[in-house]
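Appendix B. One record, verbatim.
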Amino acid sequence: MDVTFAERPEYGATIVTLSGQLDVDSAPDLQAALAGLMRRRVVQIVVDLGPLKFCDSTGLSAFVVVHRSCTAAGGFLRLAAPAPLLLQTLAVVGLLAELPVYASVADACLGEGGRLFAPPPQWVDR
């Protein structure tokens, strides 16, 4: 596995720091680790992407799956501190509208300010 995980609680959320390469070989391990957190009722998760060197589509898919599960359980999965290339990839594939992405871990934990992309408000037809 090319990606390493480090977990720590901070600001009421659990921080999962990823480093290395998140790809077809390591994405299932990431998804299993995040699912393990959810089994422990940890549903407020911030993924620190700062040290991550590479992320392919299977890694992105793992984020989406866990984000949806956390949201359904009343929590969140937020991404923090992505490298410019990863941020660009998230934008190109259209995931910035679904995955909350923040400039820093602290901003992601607090859910305030620093959000790198905020989707437009949804119009409600009445």
